[in-house]
Amino acid sequence: MIDYADFARIDVRAGTIRAAEPLAGARKPALALRIDFGPEFGERRSSAQITARYSPDEIVGTQVCAVVNVPPKRIAGFESEVLVLGFPDADGHVVLARPQFAVPDGARLF
Q1: Per residue in 8-35, pLDDT tens?
Q2: 3-state secondary structure the chain
Q3: Which residues of the chain have pLDDT under 70?
Q4: Spatial CA neighbour of 58 closest among 101, 12, 96, 27
Q5: Dihedral angle of Cα 57, 62, 67, 73, to the nearest 10 degrees
Q6: CB 26 within 8 A of CB 79
Q7: Is this prediction's pTM over 0.70?
Q8: CA-to-CA separations, 102 to 50, 62, 69, 83, in angstroms, rounded
Q9: Pick from 26, 16, 4: which is nearest to 84 by CA?
Q10: With helix as H, strand as E and coil as C, how does 70-88 read?
């Protein structure tokens, strides 16, 4: 068990995907995303293995949830700055965690 203070350290924010393209050189198929987290956090980049369910064209404009206070990680020469959240479906494909209704970019999960 963790206490609430541990959970509160994880900063999950909503952001809108502004651009998406296949991540060249990735060992597993992935998309390189540019996500707008509003004026406080600005635009951040992320690599996401979501190609089984989402194409670059259909995902642009979608709001997603992401952890914004993790250190950057290099993936196939790409610097991923946030961790986009999702759940595996019955086949192991990622289903994105996202707000059911539109919220302001940068809104914090609580």
Answers
A1: 999 999 999 999 999 999 999 999 999 9
A2: CCCHHHHHCCCEEEEEEEEEEECCCCCCCCEEEEEECHHHHCEEEEEECCCCCCCHHHHCCCEEEEECCCCCEEECCEEECCEECEEECCCCCEEECCCCCCCCCCCECC
A3: none
A4: 96
A5: 10
A6: no
A7: yes
A8: 21, 9, 22, 20
A9: 16
A10: CCCEEECCEEECCEECEEE
Q: Which two tokens stand for residue 24?
A: 């060249």
Residue 110: the pLDDT is: 86
- Predicted pLDDT at 72: 97
- Which of 74, 67, 70, 93 shows the shortest CA–CA distance to 15? 67
Q: Which two tokens stand for residue 50?
A: 């979501």
| Pair of tokens at residue 37 | 């987290």
What's the CA gap between 64 and 28, in Å, rounded? 21
Structure token pair of residue 39: 């004026």
- The amino acid occupying position 47 is S
